[in-house]
Amino acid sequence: MAEENVVFVGKKPTMNYVLAVVTQFNSGANSVVLKARGKAISKAVDVAEIVRNRFVPTLKYGNITIGTETLQSDKGETNVSSIEIEMRRE
């Protein structure tokens, strides 16, 4: 999968990420991966559901991967949850 088919979900409004995913599919992508960490995980799930229910109802979920990433900060190491949601055109 090409790196341009990945949308990193963060602090921006939810509809910005929905637009990014829909744009990827409209430009010919067969699959897009949503990636998020920490508090943005729930927003990534919201983005996936909005895209699938309102904009591209023919999409299916592919691999959904959850995990933990270790981040370095000035206070030491911190564990942060992460998720990857693959959405595919079928």
Q: How many distinct helices?
A: 2
The third-level CATH topology is Translation Initiation Factor IF3
Supply Rg: 14 Å
**What share of the residues lie within helices?**
25-40%
Sketch the topology as an H/E string, one letter per element.
EHEHEE
Largest sheet: 4 strands, mixed
In terms of DSSP E residues, the strand content is: 35-45%
Question: How does the overall form come out from the CA principal axes?
Answer: elongated
Instruction: Please provide the count of β strands.
Output: 4
CATH class: Alpha Beta
Overall CATH architecture = 2-Layer Sandwich
The CATH superfamily is identified as Alba-like domain
Determine the N-to-C terminus distance: 16 Å
In total, the number of domains comes to 1
Q: Which stretches are low in confidence, meaning pLDDT under 50 for 5 or more residues running?
A: none
Spatial strand sequence of the major β-sheet: 1-2-4-3
Give the mean pLDDT.
93
Structural class: alpha+beta
Describe this structure in words.
The chain is of the alpha+beta class and 90 residues long. The protein has a single domain, classed as Alba-like domain (Translation Initiation Factor IF3, 2-Layer Sandwich), CATH 3.30.110.20. It has two helices and four strands, in the order βαβαββ. Strands 1-2-4-3 form a four-stranded mixed sheet, with helices on one face. Helix 1 links the parallel strand 1 and strand 2 (31-37). Helix 1 packs across helix 2. The longest helix is centred in the middle third of the chain and has 15 residues, at 41-55. It starts with 5 loop residues before the first strand and ends with a strand. The mean pLDDT is 93.
